């Protein structure tokens, strides 16, 4: 092994460690403000909000997020896991894009989940959508397969890729992929 090879390997390992630390850092830092933007593909509602500021999540802004990500079939609103929002912000930063997330599905009521499950084998019986811990998204002008790959690298929770429907599922459950 040459010294040059050892240096490259060391630098590569350092970069991977840095990416891993950045990707799994968890809650935002006290002095940091975090914002997220959505456009819901079914309701056409949009939201850009600063949901974390001055060292805390902002309850009124989290309520706005919950409203936009509600079950659009039943109009039921449910709190959204702030860690899911942090996941989205970190993914956006990693991807280097500023466009809003196009939301296909956010929260799902048990009733909606059961109906979707009757129609498709791809819907989990105990979906994290029913807990406000999952979201199905894409980004305009950003390849969905690339978004999927970046989310997998983050190792932050569940990541599913639905090529035919052109969206990525993200959740704050255990790390897994499909």
Summarize this, please?
The chain is 37% helix and 22% strand. The protein contains five helices and eight strands. It has an eight-stranded mixed β-sheet.
Outline the structure in words.
Mean pLDDT is 88; it is low at 1-24. Helix content is 37%, strand content 22%. The chain has helices at residues 3-23, 59-68, 82-95, 110-119, 144-154; strands spanning 34-40, 46-53, 56-57, 101-105, 134-139, 158-162, 167-171, 176-177. The N and C termini lie far apart (38 Å). The protein contains 5 helices and 8 strands. It has a single domain (3-177), classed as 2-Layer Sandwich (Muramoyl-pentapeptide Carboxypeptidase, domain 2). The chain has an 8-stranded mixed sheet with strand order 3-2-1-4-5-7-6-8. It has 178 residues and is an alpha+beta fold.
Low-confidence spans: pLDDT under 50, at least 5 residues? 1-24
Radius of gyration, CA atoms, in whole angstroms? 18 Å
Strand content: 15-25%
> N- to C-terminal separation?
38 Å
Structurally, how many domains make up the residues? Answer: 1
> What's the overall geometry?
globular
Helix and strand string, N-terminal first? Answer: HEEEHHEHEHEEE
If strands are numbered along the chain, what order do they take across the biggest sheet?
A: 3-2-1-4-5-7-6-8
Mean pLDDT: 88
Structural class: alpha+beta
